[in-house]
Write a structure and sequence with these properties.
The complex is a heterodimer of chains A (about 1000) and B (about 250). Chain A is an alpha+beta fold and about 1000 residues long. Chain A is built from 25 helices and 37 strands. The chains are: A alpha+beta (about 1000), B alpha+beta (about 250). The interface between A and B is medium-sized, with 28 and 25 residues.
């Protein structure tokens, strides 16, 4: 059964430790080729034979069929090539696989996925444990050399092994094994040993049927970088960085590029409360957003403050020169300085693939072009492609390869095209890809987990569940909502108490742990709502039908029922699985009408009125406890049912009923959180909202001070009180804007597992609740499903399973949920931004707005009607060439944060009127243009609408170029604000 | 967690075994002449010596007139692990191990045959690479047989653990013990299908217990056949002059 030969391996680590491990070599590992006649038959399993007997000979370099053996560097560097189906019939050696895994887990994941695809015919050969291909490291041999030798040995063995099975085939037609390596030395040795070896470039170029594959080749230069013409200082070597960090001379952290100024970024260093500021191109030293970098702090007298200006890389490729940066680096001595540093080395690149557009090289016929990523934090990328004409009107995906010292931009290569520019589907695709939202079609395996239709409730089900079909339960949701996951009821009990029930769709009944459906749902983690599209977490059959608590049909529910007195004090809580029949699925508006109409006195009306009254009491209690009411501009689009183009924008209205539903959902969540934490102190899935550090509040406090209000931020309650007090008679929107600012100071609320965090940290800051979880929306959030399972196990309605109680596994799950949630939020915002663009196509509108921030060279304007934020640039560009004499000059007052022009002064929160239009001069990059209308400044403001001016001329003529990709305000405390989304209700 | 990597996609463990395979077992009986019985056993890189003295007269106080006293002593050599560590005899870990071994061996020895006597079993771990308890039990069984003490049957021990959260692994090595989840050690009397001793290093979900236990018992079964073969070979060798080889067959 197995050849038992023990080999010893010695490893050293730390204070030199000899580790001896067994290494078994086997004789039952098969070669996996369909032509093989020599492998032990007993071990063969049809699934294991993946290499086909007649691989097609597409390469013009080989006249016979071949199997490929790639080496490690080929896979690491050219992973995009392997994504193509043209490359198949590969033998993956375990040596290679291990090395890939060791060097880059991202590539390994991708590669494993590729190998798993059946049409690719990739076979993983465990050469390290095969008795004939195991290679022992020779004395003095480096690990790399040993691995290269192991690869060669295995390739040779394969070749000879296959020859034995093909003795009856003419030599020229026999299948050969070809080593794919870019290492010239290795190739030479291989050829001397009689192994066919070839470089990837040669191989790809020889695939005459796939000429476009060449674009995807990564250009890796192994040349030593000359310091001549270098634009950037060299990076330190890993050893130097390691040394530096150990001695404390260097700091390590993740780099975040600034969205507003491409020559500025910050590094989040553990142990330093403030972000470390990085300014200027040389200091940034080729770091890309997300990279883990090593920085050196500058001495305190060289510290600087984030510049107040907004800067974007607008130029067409100016060649490899660095422009003057004096403007940015001009330090404002008076302003509070923050720690400043320079990046001296990159510890880990976090490059991913980026979506964006191609900016064609003006020199026709050139294959070198510039790629402009959609994400503003990412620098432009140089790529080489022969299909520029075809790609210039497309959204494309590009990967960064390297960033040499002498190059202004990083080099990259084309990965794939997504579709035509401006096309709705393409744009949505970009959105989803950029935010890493899984949105593929449901696989067969997943769909097979769904219940068969027609779905009927059996007697057994009735027996196991509490029958609540006679109770007057109703649901209240936004219009058009199809995934109804909660319903409510309230009735008076004979003992004078009130019985309030929250009934949540019983999704965990349909999604059983461990099934493909469960795995897919846990990966997706949340339903993503775009303006015109919903990317479901579970298939539609469940989300819109079987789980959805539609009116008038029997559905399974998980009920949380309280007995309360008339002052909304909970006297008793019960949880049970139930069968309900919702009497009516109402919209917020309908429910409001019923409550307000005194002539209606049926059961539902009574129930709603009770609920409404109790909700008001609950809300009052909550606010007294210090819960925050935050704001972020919420809008919804009315979308054309045919074209899915937005036709009208409206701000979301809040009705009493919204808040009514919300209160009971909060109450249910808190009750359930307490319950599962008690039952599973080690592994309950909860949600917390950390206290924001005081530094986060600085912009808010400053903004308040400028307006003469003191904002206390020492605790949630004081913050809530001071926000309530900050009201300006003449500016009704002022308070809302302060709340918007406050929202931005908040931390992100996160899921966590109870056993992993100290009890005191369970606190939910925004809601002022000591403990909180998500229970009420299992159709659109995976966390709720886990909570349902925990709750069901605790009341004996369901059994536990191993993963449910595994703390570490659940922690990993939480990380994924938090990540996906954040991404879903960003994707939703980006979708609104996209639709705002579409809305303004061919339209110009004047709207009321407010100054949100006053910057050194710009005003940031918020337009509440669209929830839109944009920038009006004030002063002239650096080169005065475009500066028209006589243009007004703005004077920036640093202390008070005001801009003055003549006798007009702009403060934060001042109302203005702006004109919004879409600048379509560049089809590839449409921009929303903000222009000042009121107050009117000669030579700067545009005339009111009647005297319409040609936008483009305007832009060139004066220096009031103002543009912005609209940005949605970043709200953090998502519990507190209604989620913006179409077809979706307002509740948490 | 490293947990994920204990079993590769190709179904091989880190050392090249499949999930249901034991490590190589090599053993030798009668390695010393001073004790009444002795054995040396290698289970992969775990190497154990066992020596048995007795049955001899029990000291007056401890003496039990109905059955034999089994006295064990378990110790680990200072050089048995990667890092050299001085292990005083009678530290908590060895004490616990001693009690466990005593319990297991009592289940196998026909204790009623030796009233007022005592059997001493000394176990020394020379190299530790996971499954120390199991190797100790297996070595002790051989030493007891070598000493000619009446056993009900072989007592064998084997560990089992879980890889990737749901695949049971048989006979885990030190590396797998450390990076994996809970390890279940079982000592059983394989012929009569009885369990003499069972211990778990951590909690795991009840759902997993049957399959992990099943694997451990299978391991015991396989170990028994290996030990049995070794005993027969030893007998053939020792008694070759008087043609025991044929009798043992």
């Amino acid at each position: 059964m197995l050849t038992e030969r023990v080999f010893m391996r010695k490893t050293k680590r730390g204070n030199i430790l000899k580790i001896v491990r067994e290494h078994y070599l086997r004789d039952d590992i098969i070669c996996g080729s369909a032509i093989c006649k020599h492998c032990p038959v007993s071990m063969q399993n049809d699934d294991d034979i993946v290499l086909v007997a007649n691989p097609s000979a597409e390469s013009s370099l080989f006249k016979f069929p071949i199997y490929l053996v790639p080496d490690t560097n080929v896979i690491l560097d050219q992973i995009d090539i392997f994504e193509e189906d043209a490359i198949c019939n590969m033998i993956i050696l375990s040596t290679v696989q291990e090395e890939v895994k060791h060097r880059s887990s991202a590539v390994y994941k991708k590669f494993r996925d590729i190998v798993g695809r059946s049409p690719r015919h990739c076979y993983v050969f465990v050469n390290e444990h095969h008795k004939d291909t195991y290679v022992e490291r020779k004395p003095g041999e480096t690990a790399n050399d040993r691995n290269d030798r192991a690869i060669r040995t295995a390739t040779k063995w394969y070749d000879e092994h296959l020859q034995q099975s093909q003795l009856n085939i003419p030599k020229a037609k026999r299948i050969r094994v070809v080593l794919l390596t870019n290492d010239a030395k290795n190739r030479e040795i291989a050829q001397n040993e009689g192994i066919l070896a070839i470089s990837v470039d040669e191989y790809v170029k020889s695939l005459t049927e796939h000429p476009l594959l060449q674009d995807k080749l990564k250009h890796k230069t192994y040349e030593v970088e000359s310091s001549k013409n270098a634009l950037f200082p060299p990076h330190l070597s890993p050893a130097e960085i390691h040394e530096g960090i150990k001695s404390g001379a260097l700091l390590q952290g993740s780099f975040m590029a600034s969205r507003e100024n491409y020559l500025e970024g910050s590094v989040n260093v553990e142990g330093i409360e403030k972000f470390v500021l990085i300014q200027g191109r040389e200091s940034l030293n080729r770091a890309v957003d997300g990279d883990v970098v090593a920085i050196r702090l500058l001495p305190e007298d060289q510290w600087s403050a984030p510049s107040e200006i907004i800067l974007q890389d607008e130029e067409n490729d100016p060649g490899d020169v660095l422009e003057e940066e004096t403007e940015i680096l001009a330090v404002k001595a008076e302003v509070e300085k923050t720690p400043t540093g320079v990046i001296v080395g990159i510890i880990r690149r976090k490059w991913r693939q980026y979506c964006g557009i191609l900016q064609i090289n003006q020199v026709s016929g050139s294959t070198r072009h510039i790629f402009v990523p959609a994400e503003r934090k990412i620098p432009k990328v140089r790529i080489e492609t022969r299909q520029a004409e075809h790609l210039k009107m497309q959204r494309i995906v590009v990967a960064i390869d390297n960033w040499p010292r002498h190059s202004r931009y990083p080099n990259g290569h084309f990965v794939r095209a997504l579709g035509p520019l401006g096309d709705k589907d393409t744009e949505n695709e970009v959105l989803l890809l950029e935010h890493d939202v899984p949105h593929s079609k449901w696989s067969e395996e997943v769909l097979s987990c769904l219940p068969k239709l027609p779905w009927i409730i059996t007697n057994e089900d009735y027996e196991r569940r509490k029958d609540l079909r006679d109770i007057f339960i109703c649901s209240v949701d936004p219009p058009g909502c199809t995934d109804i996951d909660d319903a409510l009821h309230c009735r008076e009990l004979p003992n004078g108490r009130l019985e309030v029930g929250v009934h949540i769709a019983d999704v965990s009944h349909f999604i059983r742990p461990g099934t493909a459906l469960d795995k897919e749902a846990s990966l997706r983690a949340t339903t993503v709502y775009l303006v015109d599209k919903r990317i479901d977490m579970v298939p539609e059959l469940l989300s819109s039908n079987l789980c959805s608590l539609l009116g008038g049909v029997e559905r399974f529910a998980f009920s949380c029922v309280w007995e309360m007195d008339h002052n909304a004090n909970i006297l008793e809580t019960r949880y049970h699985k139930s069968v309900i029949k919702s009497k009516s699925a109402m919209t917020y508006e309908q429910a409001q009408l019923i409550i307000d109409d005194p002539t209606q006195n049926h059961e539902i009306a009574k129930s709603l009125r009770h609920l409404n009254r109790l909700a008001k009491i609950l809300k009052k209690k909550r606010i007294e406890n210090g819960a925050l009411i935050l704001a972020s501009p919420e809008i919804r689009f009315q979308v054309d049912s045919e074209t899915h183009d937005p036709i009208e924008v409206e701000a979301k209205k809040m009705r009493e009923t919204n808040s009514m539903v919300e209160e009971f959902m909060l109450l249910a969540n808190v009750s359930v959180a307490e319950h599962i934490e008690r039952e599973f102190p080690e592994c309950a899935m909860l949600r917390r909202h950390p206290n924001p550090p005081q530094t986060n509040f600085e912009p808010l406090i400053k903004a308040g001070e400028n307006q003469g209000f003191e904002i206390k931020t020492d605790c949630g309650k004081n913050l809530a009180l001071s926000l309530d007090a900050a009201i300006k008679e003449d500016n009704p929107y002022f308070n809302t804007m302060l709340r918007i600012l406050a929202t931005r100071c908040m931390m992100q609320a996160v899921y966590f597992i109870s056993g992993t965090v100290q009890n005191e940290e369970y606190f939910h800051y925004g809601l002022a609740a000591p403990i909180y979880t998500h229970f009420t929306s299992p159709i659109r959030r995976y966390a709720d499903i886990i909570v349902h399972r925990l709750l069901a196990a605790s009341i004996g309605a369901d059994s536990t399973y191993a993963e449910l109680l595994d703390k570490h596994r659940n922690s990993e799950l939480c990380n994924n949920l938090n990540y996906r949630n954040r991404m879903a939020q960003y994707a939703g915002r980006a979708s609104v931004a996209l639709n705002t663009h579409l809305f303004f196509r061919g339209k110009t509108q004047e709207e009321e707005g407010y100054v949100l921030f006053v910057r050194k060279n710009a005003l940031q304007i918020l337009v509440p009607k669209f929830g839109l934020e944009g920038t009006i640039y004030l002063n002239i560009p650096k080169d005065n060439s475009r500066h028209k004499p006589g243009a007004p000059v703005f004077v920036f007052n640093k202390d008070e944060h005001t801009q003055q022009c003549g006798n007009i002064i702009f403060h934060s929160f001042d109302p203005v009127v702006v004109r919004l239009s879409l600048d379509s001069t560049n089809v590839q990059r449409e921009k929303l243009v903000f222009e000042l209308v009121k107050p009117y400044i000669e030579g700067f403001s545009v005339e009111p609408m009647e005297l319409s001016v040609d936008d483009n001329d305007d832009q060139k003529a004066s220096d009031k170029v103002s543009e912005s990709t609209p940005k949605r305000p970043i709200g953090n405390a998502d519990e507190n604000k209604p989620k913006k989304k179409k077809n979706k209700k307002t509740k948490k | 967690m490293a947990n994920q990597d204990l079993l590769s996609d190709q179904g091989l463990r880190l050392d090249g075994r499949r999930a249901h395979e034991l490590r190589r077992i090599r053993c030798k009986l009668g390695v010393f002449s001073q004790p009444d019985g002795s054995a040396y056993l290698e289970q992969g890189n775990t190497k154990v010596l066992a020596a048995v003295y007795g049955p001899h007269q029990a000291p007056g106080k401890k003496s039990n007139h109905s059955e034999v006293i089994v006295n064990c002593q378990y110790s680990m050599a200072v050089f048995s692990t990667g890092e050299r560590k001085n292990r005083p005899r009678g530290d908590r870990k060895s004490q616990e191990m001693t009690i466990h071994l005593q319990q297991t061996l009592r289940a196998a020895i026909k204790t009623e045959l030796y009233p007022r006597s005592q059997i001493d079993v000394f176990i020394e771990v020379l190299q530790a690479d996971g499954g120390n308890y199991c190797a100790s039990v297996n070595a002790a069984t051989l030493a007891l047989i070598d000493a000619g003490i009446c056993l009900k049957e072989y007592v064998c021990a084997c560990t089992a653990s879980l890889a990737n959260g749901n695949v049971p692994l048989m006979d885990v090595s030190h590396l797998e013990e450390v990076s994996g989840g809970a390890t279940l050690s079982v000592a059983s009397l394989p012929s009569s299908n009885k369990i003499a001793f069972m211990e778990m290093s951590q909690r795991f979900h009840l759902d997993h217990l049957p399959k992990v236990l099943d694997h451990a018992l299978q391991g015991c079964q396989q170990i028994m056949s290996i030990l049995d073969k070794a005993v027969r070979e030893h007998l053939a060798l020792v008694g070759s002059a008087s043609d025991w080889g044929n009798i043992a067959k």
